[in-house]
Design a protein that fits this description.
about 140 residues, Pantoate--beta-alanine Ligase, Chain: A,domain 2, alpha+beta, 1 helix
Length: about 140
C-alpha cells in the first residue's frame, strides 16, 4: 500500500489574500509617491517665482527711476510687475523741506510675482528693498 504524500504549496485562498495585501500596499505607495511628486512640482514653481522676483528686483535696483514695469515669463505662467517710487522714512523730520538739500534720494523698489499654486489657485510673492541713488536733476 502506498500512502499519498501530503501536498506542499499554497492554497488558492492564501494566494488571493497575499495578492490583496500586495495591492493595498502598492496603492498606498502610489498615493504617497504621487503626493510627493505634486509637492515637488509646487516647490519648483515657488522656486522659479522667487528667482524671477529676485532677478526683476536686481534689474530695477540697477537704475532706480520712478515708474513701473510688468511682463510674463515661463510661457505666461509667471507674471511680474515692478514699481520704483521715491521713499521717505516715516521717522524723518518734517521741518521745512530737507529732502531738497540732499543730492541723494531713497527709492523703494518692489516686485510682485503671480504664479500658479496648488489646486490651480494663483499665488503671489512680493519682494521689496530700498536703494539709495542720486536725485534726478542734481549734478
Amino acid at each position: 500500500m502506498r500512502r499519498v504524500a501530503a501536498q506542499k504549496g499554497f492554497s488558492l485562498l492564501e494566494v488571493l489574500v497575499a495578492f490583496v495585501i500586495l495591492a493595498l500596499v502598492a496603492t498606498a505607495l502610489f498615493r504617497l509617491f504621487g503626493g510627493a511628486l505634486g509637492n515637488a512640482g509646487i516647490a519648483e514653481d515657488a522656486s522659479r517665482a522667487v528667482l524671477v522676483a529676485q532677478s526683476r528686483l536686481d534689474a530695477a535696483r540697477a537704475s532706480p527711476r520712478p515708474g513701473s514695469d510688468s511682463g510674463v515669463e515661463e510661457g505666461g505662467r509667471i507674471a511680474w510687475s515692478t514699481r520704483v517710487e521715491a521713499w521717505t522714512s516715516p521717522d524723518a523730520p518734517q521741518a521745512g523741506n530737507p529732502a531738497q538739500l540732499s543730492a541723494t534720494q531713497l527709492y523703494r523698489v518692489s516686485v510682485e510675482v503671480r504664479y500658479p499654486g496648488a489646486g490651480d489657485r494663483e499665488r503671489t510673492l512680493a519682494l521689496s528693498t530700498l536703494r539709495l541713488a542720486r536725485r534726478e536733476g542734481t549734478p
